[in-house]
Amino acid sequence: MNNIQSPSSSQRDVRTGLLALREQTPALENIFDAFGPIAKAHEDGCNLLVKWNNFILPEADALRFEQGVPLLADMDMPDFEQYYSEIFWLLSKAVAEGMPALSDKISVITDALQGSEYVNELARAVWDENNGVFEGLAKKLSLDGSVLMMLASLAIKPFMNRMKDEAALKIEKMQWDKGYCPICGSFPDMSLLKKKLTENAEYMAGHGGQRWMHCSCCDHQWRIKRNICPWCESEDYKKLKYFQSEERKTERFDVCDSCKHYFVTIDTRELAEMPDARIAPLGLVYLDIKAQEEEYQPMAETPWNVL
Ligand SMILES: [Zn+2]
Ligand SMILES: [Zn+2]
């Protein structure tokens, strides 16, 4: 069965989408001011990378993949050319614009890195998940290590986004039932309940609607069973609950009391238009706040849900 599908590409641009979200939820104005520039810079980075073709994706090994190894887990880091540093500067500017409290730390970082080879070392460190590099570099150059790591991680996302459509084709015939992304291995930043697209008894068990997860890194969407915790895979229905918003009935957060993780969800079944998952989580930060007040942890840390 094919349960992996990329979202339609009929999205509006991020700026238009953010304006619409702002009208819908004016109370979250501060959130859009702070994180809108990051979403916009991410989109600009993706647009830059339309020209970047310097990657060869691995072939999927069905056995390993279906046991839960994401497609890109075995891939060597491709040559990001000059694009990684271009995108790193774009995002640094956007984070400083949205979060003025960080702007001094960010100028120290950009001053220290401009014109050096260090930026490419950052890309390698993110790719290899080698956090020691950030600490080392932060110490050596007197930089804020956690801001450095945030910027470096944000700058890799447009590359993952660039590769994900081609990657999705390599795994489209394969089964994936994990809560993390089948392409890049990151956890989701939101979930979408969608109308049933295909007849399939297994996925009908939870009554009407399919659960799709949206990757916090590469923007891929994949389908998983409705009644399972994407983090710990518990299927204990007594421990899987959700809290629906009073005012906005299509929005909620789902929690697992086995592992104390949560994720935000939009029920799209009655919506006229599919939300733009690149920015929709910004409109749900009020749910992140409630969930974290109740001591649940997000599955994916994003700039806006580290409260
Ligand atoms: Zn992903
Ligand atoms: Zn769990």
Arithmetic mean of pLDDT? 92
The H/E string reads HHHHHHHHEHEEEEEHE
Small-molecule binders: zinc ion
Query: How much of the polypeptide forms β-strand, as a percent range?
Result: 5-15%
InterPro entries: FdhE-like_sf (IPR024064), Formate_DH_accessory (IPR006452)
Protein name: FdhE protein
GO cellular component, one term: cytosol
GO biological process, one term: protein maturation
List the defining traits of the structure above.
307 residues, alpha/beta, FdhE-like fold, 2 domains, seven-stranded mixed sheet, 7 strands, binds zinc ion, ferric iron binding, Formate_DH_accessory, FdhE-like_sf, FdhE protein
Compact description:
It is built from ten helices and seven strands. With 307 residues, the chain is of the alpha/beta class.
